[in-house]
Amino acid sequence: MRYNRPPDCPVEKALGLIGGKWKGVILYHLMDGKKRFGELRKFMPSVTQRMMTKQLRELESDGLVHREVYREVPPKVEYSLTEKAEPLKAIIVALEQWGKTLSRETLN
């Protein structure tokens, strides 16, 4: 079955912003509040520092993540979701629930 998508497909546009292996996971971990880079790395030990930085920069550039730099020594940087990203919470929770069912199916 083929779907008749408009040239400017909204699903394609949305997935372009949050697609990729780590962006959704980063957004998931930021849902419950601000996190520092190191905290995010602890939640995702298999992501490289370079890839984490790249994904955070893209999310920031797309207006989904806010990066707050505090003038301290050493500098403190925190990441949080922006207002633009708030509607994604429901989608991410739905993905979490679906992922749990997939995990249960794998066990059976």
Descriptive report:
By secondary structure, this protein is α+β, with helices and mostly antiparallel strands. It has one domain: Arc Repressor Mutant, subunit A, CATH 1.10.10.10. 53% of the residues lie in helices and 13% in strands. The protein contains five helices and three strands, in the order ααβααββα. The chain has helices spanning 10-18, 23-30, 37-43, 49-61, 88-107, and strands spanning 35-36, 65-70, 76-81. It has a three-stranded antiparallel beta sheet with strand order 1-3-2. A hairpin with a 5-residue loop joins β2 (65-70) and β3. The radius of gyration is 16 Å and the shape is globular. It starts with 9 loop residues before the first helix and ends with a helix. The mean pLDDT is 90.
Strand order, largest beta sheet:
1-3-2
Could you give the count of β-strands?
3
Computed Rg: 16 Å
**Mean pLDDT, all residues:** 90
Largest sheet, if any? Answer: 3 strands, antiparallel
* CA(first)-CA(last) distance: 30 Å
**Helix-strand string:** HHEHHEEH
Outline the low-pLDDT stretches.
Answer: none
Provide the CATH superfamily: Winged helix-like DNA-binding domain superfamily/Winged helix DNA-binding domain
**Looking at the structure, what is the overall shape?**
globular
CATH class wording: Mainly Alpha
In terms of DSSP E residues, the strand content is 5-15%
Number of domains: 1
Number of discrete helical segments: 5
The chain-level structural class is alpha+beta
Approximately how much helix is present in the residues? 40-55%
